[in-house]
Amino acid sequence: MLKKCLVGCLAVSSLLFTVVNAYDYNEYDQKLVNRMSGEWKNLDGQVVFNIQNGYINGAQVLDVTGLAGSQSFGVGNFIIHEAAGNRPLHMSFASTGKNIGRIVYNGQALFKQIPVPYSESVSGIHVGSTKDEVLRTFGRPTKRMGDTYGESLEYAHYKMRIRLDGGTVTSVTMLKGSPLQFDTSGLSYADGKEKFMGVYDMRNNIGFVIKQLPTGEDILYSVDGGYVEITLNPTP
User: Model confidence over 55-90: pLDDT tens digits?
Assistant: First the structure.
């Protein structure tokens, strides 16, 4: 009887070991999870995810599957091991620095550093504004595009594009020729790269200039792209 019990226990242990180790938590995945380390809060300041040392809310990360994008901007399924079993957390992410970044999980945007208060806005719309606030301010968009990460609203008459992830604004882009301007500095694309460099204390780069503000936003002026924006996802 004891022998049968031992054989049975070993068989179960072997099966559990096989299930847990069927995942491929490789070096790339580990670097991604480490890059996302920290407390991620919603706009009310509540901590939703605490990611530390390969664990999410105390549950070990076994793998990252279906990964698309890069370590700085992408989407994937984070498989965690809980007492009730393994569970996938499907989330998109943008993590580009120690204290900034964004995760979208279950339609909710989470931040390392909550982008409120904000430094810059356009007609009162800033990083962290809601979709309802955008629609009340600018009305129905000329074009709407959705993807895995969120959605973009385009306003042809304003020559402007607004990006939303998890229901909150993550970037406001004014294209060349836009009649709009930033509320705090009063600058528009037409003021030119040098003026932006002086007001925002930017270092000169060929084709673009960028500055991260204390509240987490990036101001990006792109000569080559023909736009200026406030964003959490700088892509010069």
Answer: 999 999 999 999 887 777 788 999 999 999 999 999
Distance CA 127, CA 109 (A): 11
pTM of model > 0.70: no
Q: How far apart (Å, rounded) are the C-alpha atoms in residues 197 and 10? A: 67
Query: How is the beta sheet containing 168-175 ordered, strand by strand?
Result: 143-146, 151-155, 160-165, 168-175, 227-231, 218-222, 208-212
Rounded CA gap, 25 and 63, in Å? 4
| Residue range 103-130: mean pLDDT, rounded | 84
- Judged by phi (left if over 0) then psi (alpha if -120 to 50, else beta), residue 123 lies in left
Spatial contact of 42 and 20, defined as CB atoms under 8 Å apart = no
pLDDT of residue 213: 86
Tokens of 98: 């120690």
Question: Amino acid identity of 193?
Answer: K
pLDDT at 97: 56
The pLDDT assigned to 98 comes to 61
The angle subtended at Cα 219 by Cα 212 and Cα 197, nearest 5°, is: 95
Q: How many CB atoms lie within 10 A of CB 62?
A: 22
Mean confidence (pLDDT) of the chain: 85
